[in-house]
Write a structure and sequence with these properties.
Elements (H helix, E strand, L loop, with lengths): L1 H21 L7 H4 L28 E2 L7 E5 L3 E3 L2 E10 L2 E12 L2 H21 L11 H20 L1
Antiparallel strand pairs: 1-2, 2-4, 3-4, 4-5
Helix pairs in contact: 3-4
């Protein structure tokens, strides 16, 4: 039984190393998430336990330009997921998504915060490549990926309704 446990542990470590190697394993730029820069301050709220209240949208609902070529932004609804809640702001120019940011990210515990900091830049890349909320998500971060996509879709719906 002890030998099986050792194999299980070795396999988990090897798998984790493989995932980090596959995804680049680099540290994301903290500024992209609204988290503190080394030695700086944060523009986003400090991580805390999610509130039990109803989800509320934060920030401007939608900013629209009068011409087709102007950038428009909207913040998606706050989406709760298994380990916290998040909201995403989308900027579009015409039919192209040009930027995505996360003005609200609250996690229940430090591990979830660390995982979100690694996953969100990958999700942003997928959205910018697909120009839609139809993304594959990140293996091992299914709840975060689904919440991110739901908030993106909410923001896009606000942009297309206005």
């Amino acid at each position: 039984m002890k030998r099986a446990g050792w194999y299980l542990l070795a396999g988990a470590v090897a798998g984790f190393g493989g995932v980090l190697g596959f995804h680049g394993g680099g540290t994301p730029a903290p500024a992209a998430l609204g988290h503190p820069k080394p030695g700086g301050t944060s523009a986003a709220p400090a991580p805390s336990a999610p509130s039990a209240g109803p989800a509320r949208s934060t920030g401007p609902k939608a900013r629209q330009g009068s011409a087709t070529g102007q950038a428009k932004s909207a913040t998606g609804s706050v989406v709760g997921y298994g380990y916290g809640e998040l909201s995403v702001t989308v900027t579009v120019r015409g039919s192209q998504i040009t930027d995505v940011s996360v003005p609200l990210l609250r996690t229940a515990e430090p591990y979830s915060q660390q995982l979100a900091q690694q996953v969100i830049p990958m999700l942003k890349s997928e959205v910018l490549a697909a120009h839609s909320a139809r993304i594959h998500g990140v293996s091992g971060a299914t709840y975060t990926s689904e919440a991110y996509a739901q908030s993106i879709q909410s923001a896009l719906d606000k942009l297309h309704a206005g």
